[in-house]
C-alpha cells in the first residue's frame, strides 16, 4: 500500500503544475503579462503550504484523530496569514486588488484547498 502523504504530494504537484500551465496559457491567449502579480511565488508557496499542512495532519493522525478537523482549520488560517503577510501588501500597493492579482493567488489556493479537503475527507472516512 502506498503512503497517503506521498500519493497526495504527487497529486497536488501534478495538479498545480497543470493549473500553472493552464493559467499561463489563458494569460498568453488574452495578451496579458505572464509572470506578474507574484504568480510564480503564489503557486510555489501554495504548493508548499498544502503539502506541509497535509504532512502535519498525516503525522498527527494517530494521536489527534478526533481533532484533525480543527488542525485542518488551523492550517487554513496559516495559509490566510501567509497571504496577508506575503501577498496582500504587494497587491494593495496601488490601492486596489485587480482581478489578475486575485487570480494569481486564488487559483492555486483553491485548487490546493479542494484537493486537500477531498483527500482529508476520504482519509477521515477510512479512520472512522
TrEMBL record:
<protein>
    <recommendedName>
        <fullName>DoxX family protein</fullName>
    </recommendedName>
</protein>
<feature type="transmembrane region" description="Helical">
    <location>
        <begin position="12"/>
        <end position="34"/>
    </location>
</feature>
<feature type="transmembrane region" description="Helical">
    <location>
        <begin position="67"/>
        <end position="90"/>
    </location>
</feature>
<feature type="transmembrane region" description="Helical">
    <location>
        <begin position="102"/>
        <end position="124"/>
    </location>
</feature>
<keyword id="KW-1133">Transmembrane helix</keyword>
<keyword id="KW-0472">Membrane</keyword>
<feature type="transmembrane region" description="Helical">
    <location>
        <begin position="40"/>
        <end position="60"/>
    </location>
</feature>
<keyword id="KW-0812">Transmembrane</keyword>
Amino acid at each position: 500500500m502506498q503512503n497517503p502523504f506521498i500519493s497526495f504530494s504527487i497529486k497536488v504537484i501534478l495538479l498545480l503544475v497543470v493549473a500553472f500551465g493552464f493559467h499561463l496559457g489563458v494569460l498568453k491567449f488574452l495578451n496579458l503579462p505572464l509572470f506578474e502579480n507574484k504568480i510564480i511565488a503564489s503557486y510555489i508557496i501554495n504548493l508548499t503550504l498544502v503539502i506541509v499542512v497535509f504532512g502535519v495532519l498525516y503525522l498527527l493522525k494517530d494521536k489527534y484523530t478526533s481533532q484533525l478537523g480543527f488542525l485542518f482549520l488551523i492550517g487554513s488560517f496559516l495559509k490566510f496569514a501567509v497571504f496577508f503577510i506575503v501577498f496582500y501588501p504587494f497587491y494593495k500597493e496601488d490601492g486596489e486588488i485587480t482581478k489578475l492579482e486575485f487570480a494569481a493567488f486564488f487559483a492555486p489556493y483553491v485548487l490546493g484547498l479542494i484537493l486537500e479537503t477531498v483527500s482529508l475527507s476520504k482519509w477521515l472516512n477510512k479512520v472512522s
